[in-house]
Description:
globular, DNA ligase i, domain 1, seven-stranded mixed beta sheet, CATH 2.40.50.140, D-amino Acid Aminotransferase, Chain A, domain 1, binds adenosine monophosphate, alpha+beta, 3 domains
Amino acid sequence: MKFKHLSFFFEKIEETASRLVITEYLADLFKEIAPEQIDKTVYLLQGRIRPSFESLEFGVAEKTVVKSILSAFNLEKKLFDSEYRISGDIGKTAEKFKKEIMSLEEKDLSIDEVYRDFYRLATSSGNGSQEVKINILAHLLRQSDPLSCRYLVRIPLGIMRLGFSDMTVLDALSWMIKGDKSLRPVIEKAYHVRPDLGFIARTIKEKGVDGLNKIGPEVFTPIIMMRAERLSSGQEIVDKIGRCAVEPKYDGFRLQVHYKNDQVKLYSRNLEEVSYMYPDIIEGVKKEVGAKEIVFEGEAVGFDPKTEAFLPFQETVQRKRKYDIESKAKEIPLKLFAFELLYKDGENLVGIPYDERRKKLEKSLEVSGKISQDTILLAPGELTDEGPKIELLFDEAIAKGLEGIIAKKLDGIYQPGARGWNWIKFKRSYSSKIDDTIDCLVMGYDVGKGKRAGFGIGAFLVGVYDTQYDRYVTVAKIGTGLTDEEWQEIRKRCDKIRTDDTKGYEVDKMMSVDVWVKPSLVVEIKADEITKSPVHTAGRSNKNSSGLALRFPRLVRFRDDKNPQETTTLTELEEMFAKQNR
Ligand code: AMP
């Protein structure tokens, strides 16, 4: 397929707000495209070159793209600026200039040619690379028609404005085959193990949906992590899953470790590669793990070598940084408590029972078992089928400064990407009616009045993820309870992700905000109670009914380790509401 033709699809998708229509357009596109082009196309649709867990970025700022446009069309910066100021859209500005300029170089470029040039652009680094990038993009612009120019400019900036998520792509793949969304669960299951949309699309295109059955973990492709359900007493846990393994719930950050050919890569919960942040863990894995190839998970926790005590989250989290990595690693060494084994030496372990995975995990660690010596430790697990024993283990965990416990069903499989009853978390109960925190997406903020006018932010709007409609619905506007630093921090973070595009947000007029932000920033919120509210859209079926809202919401912390789709879901909120009222 030619890139020009692909741009028609981009335009059609951009012009509709209906998710169903977008799904159909994507399905039409996928039907038409050749198997060897579909993976590249899927990445381009996302404004990328490779799946998001591979940190290959274009590495261009808007300034660089503007230089490419000026060079391609031989434009004065002033003229460009005045046009850009009017439309506010860099893609459409490039398109407009291209319409006015006759170019002799125009060629009908194929998707492969565009992809190849973009690949070159993204991988050029070092001295003089900005010049190379400018030239590559300028050359592409000179060769292309006006509409293609709109998207050629947007792709490297990652601002496609197409307004759909990975889930819509999965729906579209189902639609391509069946004309409906019925295959989405099968496709999504494979995607949870190999969250590389290009790879999934190509597999389906080449081998059909049956081709997905053979998909297993691949070292250096992070698996979407399993999550835990929640209960609030030992007895409830035993009633639900019977005899189980009780492990301490460490309060640090979760890492998925991939090892092959003496290379280690670490992934965070939101599938970002974070290897460079944790040289001590990398060393530990190389020395203390006995396997040719392995994928396992653990929780990294800061450790004080003098007192041999674990550090609270606020201290551990200081290890999440881009600079001064080595010195912080000395100050706050990490211990990785391994708790899950997903793949080892050619064997896919995701679908086997917990107790078998656990035995294999124990055999995979070549450690002394002494906390002062090892970096990788095995999370201790105790078997029980008694509620009171679980309560005791819970109290012991709390006394050690941990968060609580996680109970694991003995014959439970690892469920990638799912929150399932095979893992049940039991955290400290608070005095309020709801005993867990809620992970919310920041959707926008109001400019401050009065005391906080100086910070430029007075309140921020948060919501949860409505999986059924793939959208965010609101649960609270938070205007109190933050420290001055936190207000400044949240404002700073929001300003980096401002947008006018509220596609995918369902907000009542009363809750509208001055500044909208892209779905990116996740915060953990503590509230006293879930109440009914006419102005919040969580679970609200129409304007005259009530939604769910949080009472006395307050910020606990930023959850940089979670991606927007990992916020608490509307279904979970509804369950918490039902439980609170029981
Ligand atoms: P949540 O994210 O609230 O669903 O709680 C589950 C989280 O607890 C996981 O994502 C891990 O980061 C963390 N965790 C701590 N200790 C363990 C453990 N022993 N087993 C599983 N998860 C653990």
